Input
Amino acid sequence: MIKVAFVGNPNVGKSALINAIAGSNLKIGNWPGVTVEKKEAFAKYKGENFAFIDLPGVYSLSPYSTEEIITRDYLVDENPDIIVNVLDSTNLERNLYLTYLLLELNRPMIIALNFQDEFEKLQFSLNKEEFERNIGLESVWISAIRKNGIEELMDKILNMARAKKSVNYKLPYTQDINSALCQIKGEFAELKNSNEILSHYGSNFATIKLLERDSHFISQLKEKYDLEFGDKFNELRKGIEEKNENEDILSILAEQRYNSVNALLRDSFKTSNKSRLAITEKIDKIFLNRFLGLPLFFAVIVIFMSFVFNGSAPLIDYIDGFFGDFLGKYVKILVDGTPEWLQSLIVDGIVAGLGGVLTFVPLMVLLYFFLGLLEESGYMNRVAFLMDRLMRSLGLNGKAFVPLIIGFGCSVPAIYATRTLEDEKSKKFTAMMAPFMSCGARLPVYGLFAVAFFGSDAGYVVASLYLLGIVVAIILGLVCKFLGVYKSESSALIIELPPYRLPNLKMVLSTTSRRVGMYLKKASSVILAVLIILWALQYFPKGEAKDSYIAKFGHILQPVLAPTGFADRWETAAAIVPSIAAKEVVVGFMGQVLDTNQEEEENNATFKEDAKEQIKNLGIAFKDSIVGMLSFNLTSLFKAPGEEDIEGDGGIGVIQNTKKLWNDNLAPLRAYSFMAFILLVVPCVVTLAALRQEFGAKFMFNVIIIMTIIPYVVSTLIFQIGRLFF
Amino acid sequence: MKLSQLKQGQNARILKISTQGELKKRLIDLGIMVGEKISFQAVAPLGDPILYKVKSTSIAIRHSDACKIDIEILKESL
Output
């Protein structure tokens, strides 16, 4: 198996290139301990097996960011046979800096000059032979979109791997640096383990890192070989710095690398009067305009939300109906005759549970697809630019705006959308805040209680709850910022705004299907298990919700929740448990425990008739989906359902019965306290599964704890302070 | 003059970067170094961050960090 590592700046098309070579034969995971995606692809070429590893985009190999450390450690520890350094050929000036850093690793390397088509359009020219001679590497022109150069690249990789020639790349440094490196090497050679270390890291890399006093390398030497190197070469370093106008060593070395890049380009590259950023700058004049920038951004957000949520809603309803009405009916017939509890387990537990898992698929597909388009086009970086000031005051990353907005539709895609943020801590921080953006599933619960206790003012009440969620999230964020929790690794924002590019549809589609597949593989079994457990708690011991274990648990919770004001009724205390299955389930639960009439209509249609109906409905759902996407009407995300819909969910009279829960003059306050609790309490199991999949079980439990304490405190405050006024 | 004071249409050369450690390294990695040419491209609607053009790349830097970079105005165009 020939291992090939692809390294390059962000946005140079590494992934598209690997995709062009290996198709979709991918293995995706996370690099251990972090949320950075590890992408490996496999292919067979001319009889040999290849493994391609797509390393994160980096500008250099410093010890500061997760991506750089991952790239560095992989190249040193995993010993790939060949390194392919992918360059954006339209920006050689900057891309080649990393190339000179990679040369220090002294491993077989080939340059892939990507975006050949754009290079030619710009009328740049490169003397390839001169270029290769100067830098000492072979290169291949690539246009990943046109699939040009792929075979040539593979042939070069194959030949190089088979030849197994050792390499000795020239370093771009001046004499005094080179002699310093020799000196370090000499001193190093006297230590035990030195041969092992030098051959593992490469003597060039090791000595340069020592001269730079690279923190990651020094700590690795301590950990693995118990060698202390912190201050060993200070004298040497200071000597060089003094000779160079007291610039620090990092700047000196960087400058020499850039000088080499410039010399290389002077000899082999000719630019033109065209700029690679010409079109991008024109577009940004509008999108980043001082006056138009924000309104346009909000327009993009509205379009995005409309596509994702209005587009998926009819399909979600369809799947809901398919499992509930169609499958439910026929499976019921199949299991007729078996014991009651088994029937309920299969129909209300398993089938309903499966439906619950699959209803999220349309949402995930549309989310990943449109998010992918936003990312690939380059607009996402503009979002970071536009929102940075606002988000940073809350301790967040500018890009965090998008996941949080998505959270108003549904927390699940919001969690997954945090992938667009670059660093670990920002992702976690944002993911923690996302569930506080009141999701659409809570609307039926608000609808029920707001209409029952506030009548015509229900709309204002619901709006206030949304505001409450945002305020609590902001306070939580400020507390975390104050405590230094999830503080971003890099407190400085320095980001590149890459040129706008037409999204590669094939890549976006392949990433979308891959990620939805992962959701189904990883999250679904957990979700299904939890849903069945919740079903059991609600069914046993007697098949009646009123006497179930959940009800018993509700009774137990009552004294604990007493300060919140809504727990004098066990029904509301108990409702918290099913709210963990899904928020909207609370309405159905209230319907059951309040003995509302939930008779279902008899459906006497035949299987054929029902099947026809389902197919017809599917067609209608697709049509409604497209109509919805283009309506750009987001009210459904924020408006509570009307009385008819609520009674459809919970049974006729559920609103009246809910009203009977409390009779004192504090009844509306109790209802508000309850709604606030539901707003802030542990998110639904699918959200929890998403948190666990993306960030690990420990983080998920942290969120559970936070979202148990906060609702308790807030509801109590609302009730206890509120009662002083009423 | 500080980089944060650079205006639309002006081209400059970087004279000094008064910061250390990680921030300086990240600036260097993106090509923002002493001697490099830099020009103003755009500013975010809320005033921060600011977009500059360096080595035919657009790079956004926060106002507070741009204050740490000394520049001199150049007469010629980039």
